[in-house]
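To whoever is on call:

I kicked off a structure prediction for a single chain this morning and the downstream step that reads the tokens threw a length-mismatch warning. I double-checked the sequence; it's 241 residues and nothing unusual in it as far as I can see. Pasting both halves so you can look.
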Amino acid sequence: MMRGLSTRNYGAVVKDFHQAYGVEKSAVSDNFIASSREKLQALMERPLGDLRLCAVLIDGTAVPRPADDRGPGHQHRRAQNGVGLREGATENAAVVSELLGDLASRGLDFSVPRLYVLDGGKALAAAVRRHAGEAAMIQRCQVHKRRNVIDHLPEEHKLAVKKKLQNAYAMTEYADAKRALERLHRELMELNPSAARSLEEGMDETLTVHRLRVPAQLRRTLASTNVIESAFSIVETFAAT
């Protein structure tokens, strides 16, 4: 499974080798689950007190359940980062608070000033502020912000607005980027007020990495939740096998 081979196809592959022997797909799955459960538990329970984290990325993703589990199409939202995992029906404040509470119980000090990179969901931001208070420096995902703004626009305006957003976020100085976004906001108020309101909501928090003067190369990583979404993508690939 770790090599990307589906247990459904395992038998057919084994038959291609003259001296190979077969294993039932159910046995392969059971052995994989048993061997991975212990490692997952150790990962999710390891102490965090010695970790010196400058940034924490938090996001959620929909995970389809098998049809024989809770019915076809059933999905869970998982608030996840590399040190914690919680499963729930939606990406809500309760689920995220449980995740953060678990991290705190394992030694993560929320009084330490730290960057929290979020996808823009209000539940995530509320939960982080509840645990970290003034120590939380929230970076709203620039990719999500661009997507949300563009989704309000007709096709003929999407490319031009997308380029202006990209140019603003690519600027080095916070003041320059803020002026560019405010100028675009005024333009959108004339063009499409819904898109303008989408840009205005949490706009300054999309520039936290600019305000903190994070170096350009690191800023590209911490300006969005792409890193954790890449991890989700890998998990989904193996979950589909």
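Update from on-call: the warning came from a stale cache, not from the record. Cleared it. Sanity check on the structure: Residues 120 and 140 are 5 Å apart (CA to CA).
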